Amino acid sequence: MKKETYNFIGNLIRAGGDAKTVKGNDSGYLTAIMYMTPYKTLNRNLCPMAEIAGCLTGCLNTAGRGAMNSVQRGRARKAEWFVKDIASFMTQLIKDLTRFQNYCEKRGIKPAVRLNGTTDIQWEYIHTAGQNIFERFPGIQFYDYTKIANRPLDIPNYHLTFSYSEASAIYLKQAKIAQDRGMNIAVVFRSAENIPTNFLGLPTVDGDKTDLRFLDIKEQSIIALYAKGKAKKDQTGFVVDPQPQVMAA
After folding, report:
1. The pTM is what?
2. Is residue 174's pLDDT more than 90?
3. What is the mean pLDDT of the chain?
4. Going by C-beta distance under 8 Å and a sequence separation of 6 or more, which residues neighbour residue 79?
């Protein structure tokens, strides 16, 4: 039997066209994701820890289709909309999420959404009609990677994975906070071949098999990813080269 192909396109989010998120389809979820220009859009930084974490060069914003000028223009358009008129932006986001939820319901698949595909916006603090986006859509499972260690972890339908970097002592303090809070920590290693079995005293699990971070094992773990796009040549500390003695056999 032919496997169903999903293709949802909204004004701000889309599902089915991302090489990584489609890997979650076999788990009964379809992920829609929103990409925007992450850094210094109209003097507004939509990824506030980017410089400290040293991830500007290795940002997934440049990976895959993100290297295309047309894609970059689309992401910049959305980022500028968010910065200039957040009220109308949120109105459109609510419309997109409503359509996506209905799209999934009609096809018998569960909706999942990553709002921060290439940003690190604290959506929990943005309210429309007295509710944040997670309260407004309790039937959608939201999840993101974040570099902000003190974000709330008690939102039932929003899962956060901390993004690691060794770029600065200041950022390593954030990583320590995240680890002490029990967050899973995503680490980008140089290649799939140099991923260790343990890192920071925690076991590693393959984060590239699926993007559905909310389904990761409950035991605190390192979510091991390998560098993509310009990140392959990153030397800031965002991409990690583990010591040979901890390498997997």
Report:
1. 0.87
2. yes
3. 86
4. 36, 37, 38, 41, 42, 46, 119
